[in-house]
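Hey, can you fold this one?
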Amino acid sequence: FVELSPYCGNVDFSANISVDAADGVWIVNNHVVSESYNRAGYNFNTGQYEIADVVKGEITDSITKNGTFPTGEKVQMQVKVRENANGETVTLYVNGEEILSKVTEFQSRGRVGVLLSVGSATLDDVVFRRDAKPIVGQTDNTNASGMTLDLIENYETGQVYMANSGSANVTSDGGKTWE
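Sure. Predicted structure:
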């Protein structure tokens, strides 16, 4: 498993992947935050592309599409995660073609990476874009009501806000005071 830095918000991850042999290859997001994450990729055992929600190692919800994934060739895989009112939408693209899209209730906080099950592969041309991230060294804060919430910094606006708070509180001092 290869994973990149934490993120929150919208994210794009793509890589050229050449699989020699494997049980599956997936781009995983929301990893490490909890035992819940989702993965989008190809399951060689079933011969299907899939986007699956995984909790404690078990698939709890998934969508699939029959297809083939060539071995020994470079395949460009991309996953786009977009926040929406119901959670987030995860979309899988292969060689620029949209394969599957799924709305999941998972929060978009965690790490993104590539998971290869029982096999070998090479990666190149890895691209990772995110629009917001947890504040380094200060990933949670206790608000006035005593609730612990993640602090999120938005790259585009420069604002820091409390994730999952349901409010638009903003801080200019790293979460010590809120407006």
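Residues 11 and 123 are 19 Å apart (CA to CA). Let me know if you want another pass with a different chain boundary.
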